[in-house]
Amino acid sequence: MLTRRLPPLSLKARLGLAAGLLTLTTLLTAAMVVLGMAQVSDRLDSALAAERRLEEYAALSTQVSTFIVVAAEVIQRGQPPEVRAERTDTIAANMRRTFTRLRAGLDAEVTSAESLGLDAQTRRATLSLSIARMEARFAQAHDGLISATDDRDRLRAYLDTFASGFEPLLAEAVNEEKRLRREILTGIDSLRQRLTSVALAMGLAALLLCAAVYLGLVRPQFRRLDALRAAAQRIRGEDFAIRLPDDRQDEIGQLYAETNRMAEALATRAETVAQDRARLNQIIDERTEALRAANMRLERTDEDRRRFFADISHELRTPLTVILMEAQLGRQGAPDPQAAFATIETRATRLNRRIDDLLRIARSETGQLGLDTAPVDLGALVQDAIAETAAELSNAGMTLAAPGALPEVTVEGDRNWLRQVIVGLIRNAIRHARSGGALRLEVKPDGTVAVSDNGPGIAPGDQARIFDRFAQGSGGTAQGFGLGLALARWVVEQQGGTIAVTSPLPREIALGDAPGTKISVRLPHGRA
């Protein structure tokens, strides 16, 4: 006979079963704690009741002692029955109330001791009988004391009989109450130990159950979910070559199967998209390359045109300014018109030379200057630059400190352009450091020419870009050198030299209190 195989439990059912077991364990633990606390509470109530009865016994002992003392006094004095009754009635009433409270407490203890067993009930009932016997002895002694007899011996017999019979009963009751209290406290400690053991056992059972649920149910599902997450990450990275095991029919197994189908569909779609993208990228690359080439040609053409006009603007303005100034001086009746005409002729010749250079730039494909390098006497070159700018220095009210005997230094470069670079450095100093009133020109044997001024200096943030075309200082007092220094740097570097700026100047070489600026040009040595 074939047995029908039961379908496996779903993940929801297994998780629900595990949760139910954990809940049941928790409920059992809570129930045991509640029951244990209830028993502890009952035992504590019994211990407190015994403690209160001991206090009542102490009060009763005091009352009995007082009764015996008062009774002995009235007997000794031979007081009549009315006086004896009056002196002892208050004490007797207090003792009766004490007996009533003791009986009520023990009756309640007998009822509540049902849960503690028959022995506990019997012992409490015995205590109740002892209380009744003590009360009967007291009633007999009190009745005899207030009787109509005046016989002292008989009255003392009543009192002695009461005293000798009451004290053992009271002591026995007190001792029994103490034993009951000790037993109750011992029972509380034992119950505490049992509850602790049970709590530890239940905690261990809950811990083992949690470990079993985690190791047998939760952790395997976590591993399966980790595999699913790894598959999702691979899909996100467009890796669709995945295959998750879908042999289980629970919820995660169904999710595995759906993930496998999704990966297959995405792989097919990705292949189609990749083919379309490849064709599209090929078309885009072809069009982009064509546009890039056209843009580069346009940018190069535009850059050449802008540089050409910028160079024209800068290089033509200075000679024209000098020509106009000399013409104005001649028209105003200069004392030496021949010198003015000579200056105009020199400037016109130089301007013609600059126009030829700029035309060569315009006709060249690269827009570069044509340099004619040869050995140049640097001292003579500096003297020419000083002579060329003498009038401008005088008009600006500035003095130029230069060495009287310039060193004989031969450098390699284009004489005309090198002279123009040095002249440009002096004019930049005149334009931007006029307020300082002083310049210094230095020539060193290593081929270095330096122009220092007493101007406001150049901010550190501007020093890296003053050699850019059209660069201007960032502040109102900063120096903006424009195209002049850009062209000077290009000319110097094309001939193998370097140009650098120092600002502010160290105090030991400064020309005044202002920060000052120093532009240094170093040229390569030439053959003599």
UniProtKB/TrEMBL annotation:
PROSITE patterns: HAMP (PS50885), HIS_KIN (PS50109). The chain crosses the membrane at residues 198-217. It is found in: Membrane. One of its GO terms (molecular function) is phosphorelay sensor kinase activity. Residues 219-271 form the HAMP domain. It comes from the Bacteria. Pfam families: HAMP, HATPase_c, HisKA. The keyword Transmembrane applies. Its EC number is 2.7.13.3. Keywords: ATP-binding, Kinase, Membrane, Nucleotide-binding, Phosphoprotein, Transferase, Transmembrane, Transmembrane helix, Two-component regulatory system. It catalyses: ATP + protein L-histidine = ADP + protein N-phospho-L-histidine. GO terms for cellular component: membrane. InterPro entries: HAMP_dom, HATPase_C_sf, HATPase_dom, His_kinase_dom, HisK_dim/P_dom, HisK_dim/P_sf, Sensor_HK_Regulatory, Sig_transdc_His_kin-like_C. SMART domains: HAMP, HATPase_c, HisKA. The keyword Hydrolase does not apply. Residues 311-527 form the Histidine kinase domain. This is histidine kinase.
